[in-house]
């Protein structure tokens, strides 16, 4: 038999499998498990949790805070990912095709920079921009009274996430657009198609698969993004408490680990449903 | 219907390449016109500048007497077929053909009607509901042609229309294309690097090199009297013999033979003698040489003679008269087919 043989092959992948097991598979399974217990961060239930069946799930679905978070998360995903990053990323990729190379490289570099900087750094920068006391935006607008993060927390988060995440869509669409045959676009121009008609009739059918893949990825990343906590911590009064923030606060501030794990499981189910819908759409194309 | 007038046209790319260089050209209404040249000669850029896909740096493009130099491609009244046909893979043949009408928001029924009528004229009737991926190369080409002629454009532009077809299909498509153009009487400009294609299809040919026209004429003129040695070299399926010679009295001394002189030139002037292998025949006198290679071309054979000083001269002979390798023979140019070029490469005359 060619190759290493099964035993030696397993030997080589074992360290990686071990790390994946300890840091990914075990916590995931553990979350599912404690979701059906009354596990707490402190107190008697921390020492000896007992199984409570689906009580946590029933309580979560009945919880007004959870419903509020679900709605905010949907808004966050729709506004900043499905519409914001998608549209801006495509627009940048489309417009940058024809500009001078130095302008394209500079713009791409800046957009990429927003993407590769660590979350806490970026969050701090935006905090400095949006803060009421001496915030850059307030100074620029000569408006020292608006506390953007407090008065418009969701709008701030959406703008922040569009700014931060557009690079991925831009890169993906740039390479997708490179695969559209120029002669087809030129044919559209020759018969008098305007920009929108060319995108609808020529570009979109070619990049349909890319649009779906991109939307799926950025939707899931946005739904699971924890950076909003660094900007608004869910406040004021739960107004920007997207699901990852709510789960964190329930688990570590409220100490209700079992309850928060049930929420996590529901978020996971939500992600799976969204992914299945996208995959169905992708398959229908083929 | 309209002709195309081009005056002083230059197209310079941002990197400084002058793809089209101060070019003048007139294409007559209803003419089938070829832009012929080696790759990089600017023929495709010229075609794209007529279409408006490249912006002219200088000069004018007139279509049907209207200055369209600054017009958008969509409002110039031109239709174009690309080398790769540029069919939309997600649309059926009918949708592809009717796409120009869809852009103009024509009613669906009219789109279908035009698609059916155009398809019938191009033998595509049974294929209307297929996708381009399900068509043969020839059918794809006809679909692209159908899309271009479905709306009545003034001028049809074809970029290397036959180069994506295999050799046998190419001959069929060539005949088809010529017949279609005659039927529609549509002013057509096509680009090709294949001299045989240009000779066979075109009413007139512009031979291009380095963004300029080297010669403009009918296929016969371009074939029989190439204006310079570049054109002489480029046209013809077997390369023309271009031999160095010197004027001696009232003749040209060339590879050991004294050939007639077409123009009045001073004794001792160096010239280049050009004669096509097809216009050389085996005779009692003329250029003497020994047969070194015989290549079978079907009806004729191409014989390469090794002459004085190692110069190679090609001539074609009929299939029955093939000489053996090593035979000594003389090659004599047919009357009127001996061309004489000056040192600058320009034609001095023919005899």
Automatic annotation (TrEMBL), chain A:
GO terms for cellular component: plasma membrane. Its main location: membrane. Keywords: Cell membrane, Membrane, Transmembrane, Transmembrane helix, Transport. It comes from the Bacteria. The chain crosses the membrane at residues 12-34, 70-96, 108-127, 147-163, 257-279. Gene3D superfamilies: MetI-like (1.10.3720.10). InterPro entries: MetI-like, MetI-like_sf. Residues 71-278 form the ABC transmembrane type-1 domain. GO terms for biological process: transmembrane transport. It is found in: Cell membrane. It is a multi-pass membrane protein. Pfam families: BPD_transp_1 (PF00528). Belongs to the binding-protein-dependent transport system permease family. This is Carbohydrate ABC transporter membrane protein 1 (CUT1 family). It comes from Umezawaea tangerina.
UniProtKB/TrEMBL annotation, chain B:
InterPro entries: AAA+_ATPase, ABC_transporter-like_ATP-bd, ABC_transpr_FbpC, ABC_transpr_MalK/UgpC-like, Mo/tungstate-bd_C_term_dom, NA-bd_OB-fold, P-loop_NTPase, Transp-assoc_OB_typ2. SUPFAM superfamilies: MOP-like (SSF50331), P-loop containing nucleoside triphosphate hydrolases (SSF52540). CDD domains: ABC_Carb_Solutes_like. The keyword Ribosomal protein does not apply. One of its GO terms (molecular function) is ABC-type ferric iron transporter activity. GO terms for cellular component: ATP-binding cassette (ABC) transporter complex, substrate-binding subunit-containing. Keywords: ATP-binding, Cell membrane, Membrane, Nucleotide-binding, Transport. This is Carbohydrate ABC transporter ATP-binding protein (CUT1 family).
């Amino acid at each position: 038999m060619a190759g290493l043989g099964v035993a030696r092959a397993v030997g080589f992948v074992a360290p990686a499998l071990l790390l994946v097991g300890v840091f990914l598979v075990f916590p995931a399974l553990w979350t599912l498990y404690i979701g059906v217990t009354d596990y707490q961060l402190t107190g008697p239930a921390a020492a000896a949790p007992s199984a409570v069946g689906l009580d946590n799930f029933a309580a979560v679905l009945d919880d007004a805070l959870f419903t509020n978070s679900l709605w905010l998360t949907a808004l966050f995903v729709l506004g900043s990912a499905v519409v914001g990053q998608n549209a801006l990323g495509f627009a940048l990729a489309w417009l940058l095709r024809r500009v001078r190379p130095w302008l394209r490289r500079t713009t791409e570099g800046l957009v990429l920079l927003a993407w590769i900087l660590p979350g806490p750094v970026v969050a701090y920068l935006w905090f400095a921009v949006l803060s009421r006391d001496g915030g850059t935006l307030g100074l620029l607008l000569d408006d020292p009274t608006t506390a953007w993060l407090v008065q418009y927390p969701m709008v701030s988060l959406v703008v922040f996430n569009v700014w931060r995440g557009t690079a991925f869509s831009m890169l993906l669409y740039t390479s997708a657009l490179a695969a559209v045959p120029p002669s087809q676009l030129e044919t559209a121009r020759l018969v008098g198609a305007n920009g929108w008609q060319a995108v609808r009739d020529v570009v979109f059918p070619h990049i349909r698969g890319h649009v779906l893949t991109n939307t799926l990825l950025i939707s899931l990343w946005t739904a699971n993004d924890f950076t909003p906590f660094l900007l608004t911590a869910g406040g004021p009064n739960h107004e920007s408490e997207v699901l990852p923030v709510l789960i964190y606060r329930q688990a570590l501030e409220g100490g209700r680990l079992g309850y928060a794990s049930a929420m996590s499981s529901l978020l996971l189910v939500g992600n799976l449903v969204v992914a299945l819908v996208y995959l169905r759409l992708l398959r229908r194309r083929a | 219907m309209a002709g195309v007038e081009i005056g002083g046209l230059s197209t310079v790319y941002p990197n400084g390449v002058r793809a089209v260089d101060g070019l003048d050209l007139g294409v007559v209404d209803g003419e089938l016109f070829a832009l012929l040249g080696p790759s990089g000669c600017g023929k495709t850029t010229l075609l794209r500048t007529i279409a408006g896909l490249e912006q002219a740096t200088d000069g004018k493009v007139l279509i049907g007497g209207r200055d369209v130099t600054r017009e958008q491609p969509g409002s110039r009244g031109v239709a174009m077929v690309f080398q790769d046909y540029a069919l939309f893979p997600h649309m059926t043949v009918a949708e592809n053909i009717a796409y120009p009408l869809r852009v103009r928001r024509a009613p669906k029924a009219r789109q279908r009607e035009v698609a059916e009528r155009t398809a019938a004229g191009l033998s595509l009737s049974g294929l209307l509901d297929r996708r381009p991926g399900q068509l043969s190369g020839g059918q794809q080409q006809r679909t692209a042609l159908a899309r271009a002629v479905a709306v009545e454009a003034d001028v049809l532009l074809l970029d290397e229309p036959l180069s994506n077809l295999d050799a046998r299909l190419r001959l069929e498509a060539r005949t088809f294309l010529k017949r279609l153009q005659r039927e529609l009487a549509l002013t057509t400009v096509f680009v090709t690097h294949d001299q045989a294609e240009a000779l066979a299809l075109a009413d007139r040919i512009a031979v291009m090199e380095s963004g300029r026209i080297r010669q403009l004429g009918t296929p016969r003129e371009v074939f029989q009297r190439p204006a310079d040695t570049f054109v002489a070299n480029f046209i013809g399926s077997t390369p023309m013999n271009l031999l160095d010679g010197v004027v001696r009295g009232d003749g040209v001394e060339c590879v050991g033979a004294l050939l007639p002189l077409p123009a009045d030139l001073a004794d001792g002037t160096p010239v280049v003698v050009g004669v096509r292998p097809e216009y050389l025949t085996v005779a009692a006198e003329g250029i003497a040489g020994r047969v070194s290679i015989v290549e079978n071309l079907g009806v004729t054979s191409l014989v390469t003679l090794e002459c004085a000083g190692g110069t190679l001269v090609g001539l074609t002979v009929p299939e029955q008269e093939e000489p053996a390798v090593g035979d000594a023979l003389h090659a004599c140019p047919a009357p009127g087919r001996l061309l004489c070029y000056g040192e600058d490469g320009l034609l001095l005359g023919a005899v």
